[in-house]
From TrEMBL:
Keyword annotations: 4Fe-4S, Iron, Iron-sulfur, Isoprene biosynthesis, Metal-binding, Oxidoreductase
Naturally occurring in which organism (per UniProt): Aquamicrobium segne
Keyword Iron-sulfur: yes
Pfam families: GcpE, GcpE_C
Pathway as given in its UniProt record: Isoprenoid biosynthesis; isopentenyl diphosphate biosynthesis via DXP pathway; isopentenyl diphosphate from 1-deoxy-D-xylulose 5-phosphate: step 5/6
Name this protein carries in UniProt: 4-hydroxy-3-methylbut-2-en-1-yl diphosphate synthase (flavodoxin)
Gene: ispG
GO MF, any single term: 4-hydroxy-3-methylbut-2-en-1-yl diphosphate synthase activity (ferredoxin)
Domain IspG TIM-barrel: 17-285
Sequence ranges assigned to domain IspG C-terminal in this UniProt record: 300-400
Binding locations of [4Fe-4S] cluster: 303, 306, 349, 356
Length: 418
């Protein structure tokens, strides 16, 4: 019998980059990051959103630095966060005038843990290389890493035009799409080489090459990964809203992560009106966790429900348990070490309920249509109780809390002391 080939490829070897104490690349686990959508000048609003993103699990947070006022706000934001006990590295997102803002606001340059620059809009014509060099020199002076972030929406047009012309002259030209992909890859690699020639260490450079198409993203990063050993930031730009953004990001980044490519990820979701910005952090964590790369929160397995379920009790219970876990995780992380490994199952009937529940650490199989109104609960693969009556949901929630306390809290401490 042959083996099953479902494991991820070995992780691509990249040079690790220290971003304000968070390692990206090298042997470090894939880092989750996010970006605020507040006006950085609004210090209160930006601090609140960074705090929320960090609490949700964002290990780096990027903020827009687009004008003098926002550059001046950056050190105030950093100081306010520190006073709140929030130590999350801040990344400054610069376009067009980053060289000037960093030079005019040294406190901003110092407060940021990393500068993100886009070689496609760092300057134009004769000024381009000079302004790019100015930012790199600023990073060297302040001992900060840089993300060189190519984006096909603002691709270096001179490079693209040159590659298009060279391609036309070939006997067997590439498609226009392939030339575009090549220009994106070259822009990243050539910019990194230029930064290194100026004196920025390879361990201070992260590369990204963002596009909005799933197949383009996979193709571009697969090629970029072959041509360099820089740490790579993955992200599908303009992924979109809701399920479309989640599916497109997960499909493209999931394939790349499975190939061992990617050292940090950001899921660029467009929030729905009034939506929660932290959703992108949750999706990034769930992508990494469901693929088996990292563990952030306990997993709740729930069946989709079908015609055998006449009530929504199991859906509500699954949702309640999931929300309880998310809400409690900031405390549980320190109170219950290892709790992120917990697996809970909430199932709708006898067909798959007992089987799935036995695979979980703690699981409940609720009664389906026509079944006896009883809900067996399985703990560590064994039937531990049968719940009945109107309080099944509350009783099960209490059993989950007790299980966590016993396995990861006081019970674990007592066993360790024996
Ligand atoms: S476990 Fe039961 S209720 Fe849930 S999807 Fe399967 S058959 Fe339907």
């Amino acid at each position: 019998m042959t083996g099953y080939f479902s494991s991820p490829f070995p992780r691509r070897v990249s040079v690790g980059v220290d971003v304000g104490g968070v390692m990206v690349g090298g042997d470090a686990p894939v880092v989750v990051q996010s970006m605020t959508n507040t006006d950085t000048v609004d210090v209160d609003g930006t601090v609140a959103q960074i705090a929320a993103l960090h609490k949700a699990g964002s290990e780096l947070v990027r903020i827009t630095v687009d004008r003098d006022e926002s550059a001046a706000a950056v050190p105030r934001i950093r100081d306010r966060l520190l006073r709140l006990g929030i130590h999350v590295p801040l990344v400054g997102d610069f376009h067009y005038i980053g060289h000037k803002l960093l030079a005019d606001h040294p406190a901003c340059a110092e407060a940021l843990a990393k500068y993100r620059i886009n070689p496609g809009n760092v300057g134009f014509k004769d000024k381009k290389d000079k302004q790019f060099a100015d930012i790199v020199e600023m990073a060297i002076r302040h001992d900060k890493p840089v993300r060189i972030g190519v984006n096909w929406g603002s691709l270096d047009q001179e490079l693209l035009t040159r590659l298009m012309n060279e391609n036309k002259a070939k006997g067997f030209p590439m498609t226009a799409q392939d030339v575009l992909r090549e220009a994106i890859v070259q822009s990243a690699v050539l910019s990194a080489r230029m930064a290194e020639e100026i004196g920025l260490g390879r361990n201070r450079i992260i590369l990204s090459a963002k596009v909005s198409g799933v197949q383009d993203l996979i193709a571009v990063y697969a090629e970029l990964a072959k041509r360099c050993d820089h740490a790579l930031h993955l992200g599908l730009t303009e992924a979109g809203m809701g399920s479309k953004g989640i599916v497109a990001s997960s499909a493209s980044m999931g394939i790349l992560l499975q190939q061992g490519i990617g050292d940090t990820i950001r899921i660029s979701l467009t929030p729905e009106p009034g939506g929660d910005r932290t959703r992108e952090v949750q999706v990034a964590q769930e992508l990494l966790q469901t693929m088996g790369f990292r563990q952030f929160v306990p997993i709740v397995a729930a069946c989709p429900g079908c015609g055998r379920t006449t009530s929504t009790v199991f859906q509500e219970l699954a949702q309640t348990i999931q929300e309880d876990i998310r809400r409690n995780m900031p405390v549980w992380r320190t109170k219950y070490p290892g709790v992120e490994q917990l697996k809970v199952a909430v199932m709708g009937c006898i067909v798959n309920g007992p089987g799935e529940s036995k695979h979980a650490d703690i699981g409940i199989s609720l009664p389906g249509t026509g079944e006896t109104p009883a809900a067996p609960v399985f703990i560590d693969g064994e039937k531990a109780a049968t719940l009945r009556g109107p309080n099944i949901a509350a009783d099960f929630e209490k059993m989950v809390a007790d299980y966590i306390e016993n396995r990861f809290g006081s019970g674990a401490r007592a066993r360790a002391a024996e």
